[in-house]
Amino acid sequence: MAVGGSARGQMRPHSSKSPPFLLVGLFVVIAILAFNYWNASTKYAFSRKQVIRLSDKYQELNLKKQGIEKRNLDLADELNERKTEVMKCIAKNSADTTNCENRIRREKDEVLTQLSAVKLDNDNMRQKEIENQESLKQCQTHLDNAKEATERAKSEMEMQCQEKLTKAAQNQSEGARSLWLPRTGAFAGL
Q1: Helices marked H in the chain — which ranges?
Q2: How far, in Å, CA of 114 to CA of 106, rounded?
């Protein structure tokens, strides 16, 4: 130790003052701690507000999610009901379509049967028409032959009648001569 009483490392007697560098250091540490506390508390308050806001938003979104899920379930139920209705309608329409197709097939078969019958009748009528035309031609030929025969017979009859009339006129004139009485000038028998 040094003599003279000014030892650096010694404690000062009667001094209540702290060394100034220690006091300044403490103030700096307190200031840093205060600043950090203030910074942490503002960050904490901001974070707390943000947590509260996010919590509220989470609850709001959770409620919306539940509403959407409920709506999705309702829509899914409605969709299933509609699908069931559509399937029933399809089944009914399928049955109606099958019935209509069967009815159309039956009507088509009936129409085809009637058409076949009409074609057959038409063919028969054509055949009869051809036969009738042939009969008409034969009848026309017979009629023409009959007319010719009648004309010939008429001509022959007229000729025979003419000859008979001529003979009758000759006979009459000869008979009238024989009945004439020349002396009396009268006919005999009168």
Answers
A1: 20-179
A2: 12
How far is residue 3's CA from residue 183's CA, in Å, rounded to a whole number? 249
Is residue 103 within 8 A of residue 111, CB to CB? The reply is: no
As a whole number of angstroms, the distance between CA 164 and CA 157 comes to 10
Q: Where are the domains of the chain?
A: 33-160
- Contact (Cβ atoms closer than 8 angstroms) between residue 181 and residue 188: yes
pLDDT 10s per residue in the chain (190 long)?
445 555 555 555 555 666 788 888 899 999 999 999 999 999 999 999 999 999 999 999 999 999 999 999 999 999 999 999 888 888 888 888 888 888 889 988 998 899 899 888 888 888 988 988 888 888 888 888 888 888 888 888 888 888 888 888 888 777 766 665 555 555 555 5
The span from the CA of 3 to the CA of 81, in Å, is 109
Centroid of chain to Cα 172: 105
Cα separation, 51 vs 44, in Å, equals 10
Joined together, the tokens standing for residue 74 give 């309702």
Close Cβ partners of 189 (under 8 Å, ≥ 6 residues apart)? 179
Give me 60's structure tokens.
Answer: 């709001």
Smallest CA-to-CA distance from 51 within 63, 59, 67 is with 59
Place of tokens 């003599």: 3
